[in-house]
Amino acid sequence: MALIPVTILTGFLGAGKTTLLNRVLQESHGQRIAVIENEFGEENIDNEILVREGQEQIVQMSNGCICCTIREDLRSTLQELLDKRRSGQLAFDRVIIETTGLADPGPVIQTFFMDDEMAENFMVDSVITLVDAKHAQQQLNDRQEARRQVGFADQIFLSKTDLISPQEKAALIHRLKHINPRAAMEEAHFGQVPLHRVLDLKGFNLNAKLDIDPDLLSGPEHGHHHDHEHEHDHGHCGHDHAHGEHCSHPHHHHHHDDDVKSFVFRAVRPFDPALLEDFLGAIVNVYGPRMLRYKGVLHMKGVQRKVIFQGVHQLMGSDLGPVWGEGEVRESKMVFIGIDLPRDILIQGLEQSLTS
User: Fold this and answer.
1) CA 86 to CA 78: how far, in whole Å?
2) What pLDDT was estimated at residue 107?
3) Is residue 271 part of a domain?
4) CA angle centred on 155, ends 150 and 157, rounded to 5°
5) How far is Cα 11 from Cα 148, in angstroms, rounded to an integer?
């Protein structure tokens, strides 16, 4: 039986992975794609942005794609997909894994070579890395994960190039080529890239990856296996949550991310659009450099549709999402990922931005 091709989609927080993935899923390519989402923390807002239907772990989408949200180890999720495929419960031709923005791609690649069953059923087609042109230089300076994401790439897409000067773009491309001279590189505006630049690249070269990381296939004792040594952080609900609703949402943080924390804010009362805009504008002015990623699905006063809100550092924006479903609880849910964020100030300001 032919091996199932796997595309690993990586890139630092806010680079545009979900946007690109959405574009691929909405294309009329006639392919059945199983998508594995591996987000930072357990509160997977990307799943709502991406799937927008149902709460199941595996969701069959209307165009034949399947969205599967990781709740456990990557290997067990792949095994579950294989089992469902063999039993005829699911039919898919390929897998795309969207990694968390804080992920080192090494352990993901490792999964397909360290385990016989994975190696016998899957083939890594390519590692695709999105690079946020606006913030890449700082991220490459500060974060080893960002450098490794570039180093492992077979294809690099530059997002947000319209936000930098031609000189800055040239300097960034020079630096990326220095890190990874063999990866193809092109720009991606809002995820609009030709499908043939994403799927069936046959670009993965294990020997080249071993040049980057000689210990790639040496097993978990080299610190690449990321299932343990978690910290715990707890999310926050607005004070207006339903009686009996549990407020805390534990978030697992890998030991190499100990300077990065996330928390979730939830509220049933709608936001006042003007108050929220003023508060968030003030917050990003002061704390923007430390705010790696923030996003959410918002319930706004006077708006009948969900508002999809996303930001990275000082850049933020929002779009209208789908209409709230009949009988669906209209609840805002926001996740903030950053370095030493002023949690109490954020929570207080968000609560004060709710309608009274």
Assistant:
1) 12
2) 79
3) yes
4) 80
5) 10
For range 287-314, the mean pLDDT? 84
Contact 63, 25 (CB under 8 A): yes
Residue 140, SS3 per DSSP: helix
The answer to whether residue 290 sits within a structural domain is yes
The number of domains in the chain is 2
CA distance 304 to 320: 9
- pLDDT above 50 (res 92): yes
> For 248-285, what is each residue's pLDDT tens digit?
333 333 333 445 677 889 999 999 999 999 999 899 88
Nearest to 155 by CA among 115, 120, 195, 116: 195
* Rounded-to-integer distance, Cα 288 and Cα 314, Å: 5
C-alpha 66/C-alpha 53 separation (Å) is 12
Q: List C-alpha distances in Å: 275 to 16, 146, 312.
A: 27, 35, 20
pLDDT-derived band at 313, boundaries 50, 70, 90: confident
Mean pLDDT computed over 186-202: 81
Same domain, 288 and 183: no
DSSP-derived letter for residue 255 is G
Rounded distance between C-alpha atoms, residue 121 and residue 198, angstroms: 21
Tokens of 120: 């016998």
pTM metric for this prediction:
0.66
Q: How far apart are CA 14 and CA 3, in angstroms?
A: 32
Query: What is the sign of the dihedral through the CA atoms of 143, 130, 21 and 126?
Result: negative
Q: Extract the tokens encoding 263.
A: 């928390």
- Residue 44: how many CB atoms within 10 A of its CB? 18
Pairwise pLDDT comparison (63 vs 101), residue with the higher score: 101
Q: How far is CA 6 from CA 22, 39, 124, in A?
A: 17, 18, 5
Instruction: For residue 281, give both structure tokens.
Output: 């504008």
Residue 303, both tokens: 């708006």
Q: What is the pLDDT of residues 98-146, one digit of tens each?
A: 887 777 787 788 788 777 888 889 988 888 999 999 999 998 998 888 8
Q: Please check whether residues 19 and 124 belong to one and the same domain.
A: yes
Range of the domain at 274: 260-353
Q: Helices (H), strands (E): how many in the chain?
A: 11, 16
